[in-house]
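pinned: reference chain
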Amino acid sequence: MEVVPAGGGETQRNPCDKWFCSPAKMANGKQIFSSRFDASNGVAHPMAWDLENLEVPGDDRTVYYQDACNKC
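pinned: its structure tokens
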């Protein structure tokens, strides 16, 4: 989830102790992306401030987060 937990009481391995990980946060077709260093997989990281910019490589992590966070 994170290299170093961002908040008090958070761990590195438990997705359910993160502020963004709950069934309510994952509702309505929420998609989750992460950035990456290379574009070898052909996925762009959608940036909220520049949705037309497809130059930032990314990973679509939606399936992982939907699975993990909907169990919280």
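why pinned: The two ends are 14 Å apart (CA to CA). The first helix runs from residue 62 to 69.
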